[in-house]
Amino acid sequence: MSTDNALVPTTSSVMMDDGAKLHVKILGDGNGSSSKPLLISLHGAPGLSTHLEPAASYTFLSKVYRVLVYDGRGSGTSDHIGPFSHDRWIKDIETLRKFYGAEKFVLAGASYGAFLALDYAVRHGDRLDGLILRGAWANGKFGPMNALANILTSDKVKVDTERQVRLWSGNLRNDQDFEDSIMELLPFYAPPHTADIQDIPESTEFMGTVKYHSATQNYAFGVNMPQFDVRDKLQSIKAPTYVVVGRHDYVTPVSSSEEIARAIPRAKLEIFEHSGHSPPSDEPKAFEASLAKWLKAEGLPSTS
């Protein structure tokens, strides 16, 4: 198979053990059976974001990895069959790992995907060659409340207070309520002075046709987050871990990433000084170079 053909995305519908089907793309191998190592990347914003966000972030690694991206259960075009719990989503990761024939793999998670990646790592750390976390917190009781407080006191956005409380507590009324809450919030995720940064592409976080599924968001923040607290388990994560955060991220602030990086034995913290919540889209060249350097330093396949 030629190199060009190997980089063509392969789209599949993969059935989980309960019959739900997930929309999956493999970047970096035409048929999913390559000898390349596997990297699974988890998107954020459950019920809103899709595989397009991690695809934009990690396609540059598809020359050395099979980069697996997918719409999580309850998001995008994957089946909306619950529960939308961490237990169920972790089972889905395990099904995909086995389906694509990997004993071990690199797991990347962005925003909410980073919370899920952390939960996977403390449960199944022996299956990880590496862990990449972007925009994470380790305490789901504190994190959403802190994000909401930052939003309500920010001069970057003018929001409906009651609607934002519904969003961050998992009490959205319907899909339209979800859409309205996100649309008024978008500037909050961006770094300041974005026009001064020359290598920013169009936003990858909400690319494509956006579909809002409030039931997924409500379960994630109304049920999962109050139960999510891995602070006392972080030291058990033995895989090399790359913790990425933007200096101007007020959703998952620098202090949260510092807490995680201090606790994980083999963690490296990288703060992107010109980024908000998404360094891969705010500073793509710097993000790619930094990640490639870290992979090489850890003895993992790298583009550098």
Automatic annotation (TrEMBL):
A GO CC term attached to the entry: membrane
Entry-linked Pfam families: Abhydrolase_1
Alphabetized InterPro entries for the sequence: AB_hydrolase_1 (IPR000073), AB_hydrolase_fold (IPR029058), AB_hydrolase_sf (IPR050266), Peptidase_S33 (IPR002410)
Keyword S-adenosyl-L-methionine: no
Keywords from the UniProt entry: Hydrolase
Gene Ontology MF terms: peptidase activity
AB hydrolase-1 domain span: 37-283
Signal peptide: none
Keyword Transit peptide: no
GO biological process: proteolysis
Family membership: Belongs to the peptidase S33 family.
Protein name: AB hydrolase-1 domain-containing protein
Taxonomic source organism: Exophiala bonariae
